[in-house]
Amino acid sequence: MEREPAPPLTGTALTARNLVKRFGDLTAVDDVSFQIRPGETYGLLGPNGAGKTTIISMVAGLFPPDSGSVDVTDIRMGPSSLGAKRHIGLVPQELAIYPDLTAEENLNFFGRLQGLRRKDLKSRVALVLDLLGLGERAREQTKKYSGGMKRRLNIGVGLLHRPLLLILDEPTVGVDPQSRNSILEAVAQLSTEGTAVLYTTHYMEEAERLCDRIAILDQGKVQAEGTRDELITLTGGVDRINLIGTGRMVAAAESLRTVPGVQQVSGGGLSGLTLTVTDGPALLASIITNAATAGMAVTSVELTRPDLESVFLHLTGKALRD
Ligand SMILES: Nc1ncnc2c1ncn2[C@@H]1O[C@H](COP(=O)(O)OP(=O)(O)OP(=O)(O)O)[C@@H](O)[C@H]1O
């Protein structure tokens, strides 16, 4: 099927300036600023509770920031600014589709709500079904769909009106591998067509694969921002070692912190210990011996070159998935 021509890749799709949001004593979002250009996929990478959903809610105009501003292209977002909102496709974590309707009927229904005209609607529905790999099962009731297919359809609803900016809130959490792949491919395709994408995730691999630029978020603050390669240079090129095992994990962690070349040790639960070290291959043997002496029975060891997980650990002292 023919795709529509891409809009020009110029200007700025989104500008978020100095966003602050407090809930009582908690500053959930603390002076967050970023810009997204057309065709760019921008990632907010951070653990649960980092403030991702709160940021995108303000960007989409669901509630106003306590201070700061959001501009979609050059239109200021406010509670009633339909002008800014119509350029946004927001796909929340929760599903908003009708189980008794087919995928096609759902899309037709939501498309009409969004004001699409009949002829345009027909081609948009076909295009969205094709993009998300749902064409073959478009005429089945969605209650027969897998969780991942429902999630794909939910994304489709957010895309019908050709938003300049698509906002996806952790779109792959809990979905099957096939749907996950389909979602990632659809986002990559949209980006080549000029759609700006704001993508929140706590999966480092997705941020690395999809996002042109990434903000690493923790406790409401942007800890660092840049391309994957720019962020990786922040670690100073340190390696990461994961030790899985049983026994005296806390004692092992304490002991490993004293080994020369070990910069940080985190974890200690079922997921094992995560270490950042200056020269992994050279230190590996002494680390395993040290952990064993401290009472940890090491069952598996993994050495990884720097990645965004290491950047997060380096910046916050915590593992992304603690
Ligand atoms: N309406 C609210 N009232 C009070 N606190 C809130 C509210 N919404 C969010 N929070 C708190 O603000 C912080 C940021 O939450 P937010 O949902 O934005 O994080 P997140 O990075 O999206 O994580 P998750 O993936 O778990 O949703 C958390 O500590 C959360 O408990």
UniProtKB/TrEMBL annotation:
Signal peptide: none annotated. PROSITE patterns: ABC_TRANSPORTER_1 (PS00211), ABC_TRANSPORTER_2 (PS50893). The keyword Cell membrane does not apply. It holds the Pfam family ABC_tran. Residues 14-244 form the ABC transporter domain. The keyword Repeat does not apply. Keywords: ATP-binding, Nucleotide-binding. InterPro entries: AAA+_ATPase (IPR003593), ABC_transporter-like_ATP-bd (IPR003439), ABC_transporter-like_CS (IPR017871). GO terms for molecular function: ATP binding. This is ABC transporter ATP-binding protein. It comes from Paenarthrobacter aromaticivorans. The lineage of its organism: Bacteria, Bacillati, Actinomycetota, Actinomycetes, Micrococcales.
